[in-house]
TrEMBL record:
One of its GO terms (biological process) is microtubule-based process. It holds the Pfam family Tubulin. This is Tubulin epsilon 1. Keywords: Cytoplasm, Cytoskeleton, GTP-binding, Microtubule, Nucleotide-binding. InterPro entries: Epsilon_tubulin, Tubulin, Tubulin/FtsZ_GTPase_sf, Tubulin_CS, Tubulin_FtsZ_GTPase. Signal peptide: none annotated. SMART domains: Tubulin (SM00864). It comes from Chelonoidis abingdonii (Abingdon island giant tortoise).
Amino acid sequence: MTQSVVVQVGQCGNQIGCRFWDLALREHAAVNKKGIYDEALSSFFRNVDTRNGGDGADIHKGKIFSLKARALLIDMEEGVVNEILQGPLRDVFDSKQLITDVSGSGNNWAVGHKLYGYQYREHIVEKLRRTAEHCDCLQCFFVIHSMGGGTGSGLGTFVLNVLEDEFPDVYRFVTSVYPSGEDDVVTSPYNSVLAMKELNEHADCVLPIENEVRESINILVNFSCCVRYRGSVSSLSVLMKNVILKLIFKKNQSGLGS
Ligand SMILES: Nc1nc2c(ncn2[C@@H]2O[C@H](COP(=O)(O)OP(=O)(O)OP(=O)(O)O)[C@@H](O)[C@H]2O)c(=O)[nH]1
Ligand SMILES: [Mg+2]
């Protein structure tokens, strides 16, 4: 069985990513009532024996002990990642899977790509390698990011470059959230154009998501939008999950995944 690693970058990437993990866990729990660590789970999660504390050994079969997402969480602000670490998904991530800074990229592609990118390159490579070492057969990286924010667009596409350099044989799929027309951040369109060039050159497959269209879909399906992004993030993660699973399934069928 093959494995995939999710790299979530920036506020948007981390918020959507977390809803994806939540959905994956809930859907799996609904069909796997006995709590067995199976192949489906192993695609996205490690099963770690944490009984003796610390970073225990991976368990490849049998009962679920402690599930750890095959993920890397990157944000140049701490807020969103800290929230995740205090929320219901805190046990799914460990501190070795996080890269944060304090001040963010200020909605500036160049700060994310040129400044933080070069500053954190070694750090990113080391954490990616560590995550990849836990996989028997790493098939895909899924990058989730926004095109409008400085960290998502700049550092997100820098990570794509790193993936291409360090793991040239592993597919790079990207979920990119485009800013809506109502986005009042003046740099968003510029960030998007700069990021688009990088996607064009370094991604194998891009799943573009337009925030405005997504908002209309939300109204149509009557999602509750009491909390900002709550409904949107969940509809988006359902969409992302369905596309990802279909792509994986098709690739496995055609033998590309082996
Ligand atoms: N659909 C959706 N879009 C989001 C979410 N969070 C932010 N966005 C969109 O992302 C863009 C802003 O990017 P962010 O991800 O907040 O920025 P960032 O990557 O953290 O970069 P900096 O804050 O500049 O360091 C805007 O177009 C927002 O509409 C989210 O949870 N869901
Ligand atoms: Mg931010």
